[in-house]
């Protein structure tokens, strides 16, 4: 969806001279699924002084992607109720005029798998352990690291060879209902020691061993997009390092809460976990 909005801006009341503020708004895709990614574009002529937006109760972070061109990439929560939602835009023109308007977004249901798992007691203790909350907080903190440049390029690649043993969004029930949650990433299963590659270019913002997540690497791809790779056997990159798409960064393992060797790959967009496979299937943000 792309449309042009023209707001008449009265510049000089006395001379009755009016100038138009032209805005081109694009929202892709028009109907977006739960757990998928939404891209908002805005082009303005003349330039804007301020641009703000709100979606699902949160402020939208826009990034400049060209002259007078702005973009925001937003994750759609996987458990959100399907239906019609609105994006609120607030701009301030160079003349200081404030304009507010809304755009509609349709969220549709995605199909998610149901899985039942049983874990040995030593592992199941981790589901309720203090580590899980602590590690979750630590990972979320890295999503706040600002990188205004887009570091990724084109489609993402699958970070390891293997079979998809658990898809994004699966409803997981552990040990006959003693614990359950949603799987916020995709699992790729293969032999221990299988090469793990950077799914796209970026900067390493975390590389360490954790109790529940095991060996973990987080890559910032810029503009609020992060890859989280967990259960690694070896980590071959350090925090702060730049990585290229396809670069060897570690090896597959079963460290932390894992019952077999696999790689868990999570993708965060605007601090919402989304389906990473969508990013391998198409170029997002173009
Ligand atoms: Zn997983």
What does this entry look like structurally?
The radius of gyration is 21 Å and the shape is globular. The strands form four sheets. Strands 12, 15, 16, 17, 18, 19, 20, 21, 22 and 23 form a ten-stranded antiparallel beta sheet that branches. A five-stranded antiparallel beta sheet has the order 1-2-4-8-7, with no helix packed on it. Strands 3-10-9-5-6 form a five-stranded mixed beta sheet, with no helix packed on it. It has helices at 121-124, 130-142, 276-281, and strands spanning 2-12, 17-28, 31-33, 37-45, 48-55, 58-59, 63-66, 69-75, 83-93, 98-108, 114-117, 163-166, 171-174, 179-182, 186-189, 195-197, 202-209, 215-222, 225-235, 242-243, 248-252, 262-269, 272-274. A hairpin with a 4-residue loop joins strand 13 and strand 14 (179-182). It has two domains: 2-108, Sandwich (Immunoglobulin-like), CATH 2.60.40; 114-281, Distorted Sandwich (Glucose Permease (Domain IIA)), CATH 2.70.70.10. The chain contains three helices and 23 strands. With 286 residues, it is mainly β. The structure holds zinc ion (ZN). Zinc ion binds at residues 166, 183, 185, 187, 264.
């Amino acid at each position: 969806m792309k449309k042009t909005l023209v707001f008449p801006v009265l510049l000089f009341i006395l001379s009755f001279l009016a100038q138009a503020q032209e805005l081109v708004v694009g929202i892709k895709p028009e109907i977006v699924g739960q757990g998928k990614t939404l891209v908002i574009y805005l082009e303005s002529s003349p330039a804007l002084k301020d641009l703000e937006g709100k979606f699902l109760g949160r402020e939208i972070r826009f990034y400049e992607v060209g002259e007078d061109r702005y973009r925001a990439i937003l994750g759609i929560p996987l458990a959100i109720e399907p239906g019609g939602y609105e994006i609120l835009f607030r701009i301030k023109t160079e003349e200081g005029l404030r304009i507010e308007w809304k755009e509609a977004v349709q969220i549709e249901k995605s199909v998610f798998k149901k899985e039942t798992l049983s874990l040995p007691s030593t592992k199941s203790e981790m589901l309720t352990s203090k580590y899980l909350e602590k590690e979750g907080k630590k990972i979320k903190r890295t999503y706040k690291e600002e990188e205004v440049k887009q570091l990724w390029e084109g489609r993402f690649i699958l970070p390891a060879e293997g079979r998809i043993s658990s898809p994004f969004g699966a409803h997981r029930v552990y040990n006959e209902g003693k614990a359950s949650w949603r799987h916020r990433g995709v699992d790729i299963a293969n032999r221990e020691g299988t090469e793990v590659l950077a799914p796209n270019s970026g900067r390493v913002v975390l590389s360490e061993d954790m109790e529940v997540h095991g060996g973990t690497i987080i890559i910032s791809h810029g503009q609020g997009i992060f890859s989280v790779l967990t259960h690694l056997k070896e980590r071959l990159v350090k925090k702060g390092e730049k990585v290229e798409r396809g670069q060897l960064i570690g090896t597959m393992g079963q460290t932390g809460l894992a019952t077999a060797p696999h790689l868990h790959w999570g993708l965060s967009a605007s601090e919402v976990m989304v389906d990473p496979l969508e990013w391998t299937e198409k170029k997002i943000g173009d």
